[in-house]
Q: What sequence folds into this?
């Protein structure tokens, strides 16, 4: 299926998805990268891979409804069936939720429902939680509240933040493409 990846930053998860497609493990087509931050590194990654990208500034629209209608038209005109969020730092509104019902997926760096929202890794460590991890879930109107699809966790032990972050990203980069492959083929 055709998918669009939405990202606001580095784009290492986008890269992992693209690499997985290139290896033939994830059978899907990357139709578009969408970003709300034109300077995000994910745009350079997309360029290198030859994936079209589209940057927009939410502040140039009067409402979320208006920019989501614009995105909806763009995605539908490209035949996009799935929206894959990968470090996209905005809530999805009713326009896209309705147009892509049960077709919007997110990855979050905690074992949800624990530690939703920003800096989940920092929250995990500050709480002294025994486990850190990663969740792939459907997107609903809430912040990291949608139905859980896949999770992977590990014991924090005495690890530094740096070590925990590294482990989380390694898990993300294999769990996200693998979970998408399962979803697309069920
Ligand atoms: C990841 O940790 C993801 O779980 C979270 O945002 C981060 C994005 O990283 N939603 P990257 O831009 O894919 O490198």
A:
């Amino acid at each position: 299926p055709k998918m669009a990846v939405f990202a606001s930053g580095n784009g290492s998860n986008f890269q992992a998805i693209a690499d997985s497609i290139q290896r033939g493990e994830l059978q899907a087509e990357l139709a578009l990268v969408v970003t709300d931050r034109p300077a995000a590194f994910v745009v350079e990654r997309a360029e290198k891979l030859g994936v079209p990208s589209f940057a927009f500034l939410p502040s140039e629209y009067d409402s979320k409804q208006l920019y989501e209608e614009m995105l909806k038209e763009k995605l539908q005109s490209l035949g996009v069936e799935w929206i894959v969020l990968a470090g996209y730092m905005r809530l999805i509104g009713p326009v896209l939720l309705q147009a892509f019902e049960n077709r919007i997926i997110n990855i979050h760096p905690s074992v949800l429902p624990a530690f939703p929202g920003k800096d989940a890794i920092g929250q995990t460590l500050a709480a002294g939680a025994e486990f850190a991890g990663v969740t792939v879930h459907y997107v609903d109107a809430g912040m990291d509240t949608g139905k859980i699809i896949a999770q992977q966790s590990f014991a924090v032990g005495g690890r530094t933040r740096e070590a925990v972050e590294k482990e989380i990203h390694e898990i993300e980069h294999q769990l996200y493409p693998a979970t998408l492959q399962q979803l697309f083929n069920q």
About this structure: The pocket of 5-O-phosphono-beta-D-ribofuranosylamine is lined by residues 7, 9-13, 86-87, 107-109, 172 (CB under 6 Å). The CA atoms of residues 136 and 150 lie 5 Å apart. The first strand starts at residue 2 and ends at 6. The chain has one domain: 2-184.
